[in-house]
Amino acid sequence: MKIGIIDYGMGNLFSVEQAVKRLGADVIISADKAELLAADALILPGVGAFPDAMTRLEETNLVSLFDEVVATKKPLLGICLGMQLLFETSVEKGDNKGLGLFKGRIAEFSGKDAAGEAYRVPHMGWNNLQFKRYPVWLSKEALDNEYVYFVHSFYATDLEDADLVAYADYGGEIVPGIVQKGSITGMQFHPEKSGSCGVALLTAWLKGIEKGEA
Amino acid sequence: MLTKRIIPCLDVKEGRVVKGVQFVSLRDAGDPVELAKFYNEQGADELVFLDISATHEGRETMVDVVRETASALSIPFTVGGGIRTLADMTRMLRAGADKVSVNSAALQNPQLIKEGSDYFGAQCIVVAIDAKWSEEDGTWMIYTHGGRNKFPKEAVAWAKEAVALGAGELLVTSMDKDGEKTGFDNALLKEIRAAVNVPVIASGGAGNAEHFYETLTEADADAALAASIFHYKETSVAEVKNYLRSKGVVVR
Asked: Cα–Cα distance between B85 and B35 in angstroms, integer?
């Protein structure tokens, strides 16, 4: 199986590449649409700011890739900023338009909870996932309350209830951790840095691709 | 709920872990990657590599250490020591580090924090603060050169400035407590905790599991770091976490 990692010049691809390789899949890292579409599934990684990432996707002519990903039902996994880009809009450094594969917007942690108590931003560290439902490819995993590694200052909100798979509680906010709709999945945390739970999630996703479930 | 983090720190010189680590279970106790794996298995939440290489070759070797660690492990880690430019940050982050920590270079050129934060995001930029109580000034001041030289900046003011410039996390080491094993400097940590809204890692002074408990609750540090007590097996990450759990602190 071949996984294509979308290389649009944002962030650390190395850890993602290594994590997927450790699980036995072949990896190509590319900014070429045809090459990427030839892979069995795609990963959209990303570290950095939302508007910079959208600009880079436009400059590398990769925005239209996502239309074909949707049309061909090619499994896609967005990680961290890569997940946020799949939403409609973001308020990071201004008003930005995203790829719009998921309904909803990316908002900033306020740093104050409902009672006016301050909490830390970024949301950095290990938080437990609370599952609302399990996609087919994940149904055999018992991962409720397992810890994964988050590091972000913005989060998805106003999304469709049906798209939410698992969330973490931070500062009294429901922080979407995993979203999924059809063949499109997003993870706000870093599965490649999330120890055994991250390995279980990536393994299940890769197996799901093989079985045509992801 | 977000957990408190326990972070072993590895000092690496010319690609080798120093401080005479003694682990019979390891093939090569001086190999940073072997040691990183060991701590990962123990339940470490994160690792910090501090490069104390004196030579250019040694610093080049650090990139290989980072790459090998990122290839072998699936927990986050920070690299500090010798990070002086945006190019240094790029090399380490591309090699698989999750965060870089800047110290003296940021004191000389605070804009380095802003440049790094704008380019990579605040979450990648840790500012390491070495603080020591100064009787003369009646507060904690920044010290450089392992605590020997006073830098004309108050620690708490520098913490605020670093966060305003874009630091996503602070690694606060007490030069008074470092190596003393009598507990973290919770008075200092409390002041810094109250002054900023980013995560704070307590460092310097860990001697036993209770010290971790104190700093994570009393000073409300988000994470606590230690080196020698883990390396010399005076306690273990697992033991510290069990103790914290027994006291009701949420850990992974």
From this structure: 28
Domain B5-246: CATH class, spelled out:
alpha beta
Residue A71 Cα, gap to closest chain B Cα (Å) = 32
Eight-state DSSP code of residue B2 = P
- How far apart, in whole angstroms, are the C-alpha atoms of residue A195 and residue B234? 25
Domain ranges of chain B: 5-246
* Any A CB within 8 A of B24 CB: no
Tell me how far apart the alpha carbons of residues B228 and A27 are, in angstroms, rounded to a whole number. Answer: 39
Instruction: Count CB neighbours of B176 within 10 A.
Output: 18
CB-based burial, A87-111: b 16+ in 10 Å, e otherwise: bbbbebeeebebbebbebbbbebee
Grouping H, G, I as helix, E, B as strand and the rest as coil, residue B80 is strand
pLDDT in tens, B159-207: 999 999 999 999 999 999 998 999 999 999 999 999 999 999 999 999 9
Position B20 scores a pLDDT of 45
As a whole number of angstroms, the distance between CA A107 and CA A131 comes to 22
Active site residue B118: no
| Type of residue at A111 | G
Q: Is B130 part of the annotated catalytic residue set?
A: yes
**First-to-final CA distance of chain A:** 13
B81 with B32: CB under 8 angstroms?
Answer: no
B41 part of contact set with chain A, CB < 8 Å:
no
Rounded CA-CA distance B104/B127 in Å is 9
Peptide bond into A51 cis (omega under 30): no
DSSP state of A191: G
Asked if the interface predicted TM-score (ipTM) of this complex is over 0.90, the answer is: yes
Q: Which domains does chain A have, with CATH numbers?
A: 2-211 (3.40.50.880)
Residue B4 half-sphere exposure, CB side, CA atoms within 13 Å?
28
